[in-house]
Amino acid sequence: MIKNIAVIRGDGIGPEITAQAIRVLDRIAELYGHTFNYTEVDMGGCAIDKYGDPLPESELEKCLASDSVLLGAVGGEKWNNVEGDKRPEKGLLRLRAGMGVYSNNRPAKIWKQLSEASPLKKEIVDKGIDFIIVRELIGGIYFGEHKTEGNTAIDVLRYSEAEIERIGRIGFETARKRNKKLCSVEKSNVLDSSRLWKKVMHRLAEEYSDVELSDMLVDNCAMQIVKNPSQFDVIVTENMFGDILSDEASMITGSIGMIPSSSLGATDCGLYEPIHGSAPDIAGKDIANPVGTILSAAMMLRFSFNMPKEADAIEAAVSAYLDAGYRTADIMSEGMTQIGCRQCGDIIVSCLK
Ligand code: IPM
Ligand code: MG
Question: Among 163, 189, 169, 328, which residue's Cα sits nearest to residue 258?
């Protein structure tokens, strides 16, 4: 198959980690007889420097014309004082909205080789951590009106039934393919938007009678994720709650550097990115963990290109790499061999079959 991939290397560690994911994709292309063409797209701080805009229309167009988008990370201190609408993150938000990718899927799964890296107690980890956060990605407070008037700042949180329903369906469908347990997370004791959220989820539940739906308040969910993570199968939640909970969920698996994500909308053209940021403090030092990006590339093959064998091969190669005792700095533990970003790519490429 021939696939055109838009590549956004971005800022900070973005270029280093993306380079390793591309090496993995190139090896997959060789092994399985595919052609992957890459189109470079500028987004984030580097685009601000070049065009004065974190995502010029022409760059968004390249993404929309591709079969899928692979993204490293954007942002950094250098652009912290840029006004709200021109910040690097705004490029990412415009990209997500422009692609219409309303459904963000963030797995929280502990690799057996890394159970020691989890900050949780062994007896909690041993019960198993394997759940998915389905996060609504192009609505809510991220996309409401933002303004500052004198000493007062306003951010609007708005959800329509239709927006809730389409992400709710993804939550139910995801649970249906797994252990059929869906936990809807909201703050219905305080927010109108959450009461609407809950109502829509329960209406949908009638159509998905094979899936067991439960409700949880977001503050309680934050606690339950560290207290008893094995209770979760699929969590569905709104944009900002999903942002916060997915960082928490990633940390209990050992490192945020290991977690990939997929974002999809109505078409097969998806956006694939690790869930971590651009980590400017370690940029250019060849110590970043590229696995989150490499596994994001695997998700691209699985969900957008219908290449499950190839995706399995990447995941197996990551597992073999961990089995061999190599660790990047973020997941380093006693007795393991510490390696850098590029070496990590070397080893995973060599493990591909
Ligand atoms: C994420 C990030 C982004 C978000 C930022 C960089 C805008 O934290 O993907 O989780 O808040 O969605
Ligand atoms: Mg986040």
Answer: 328
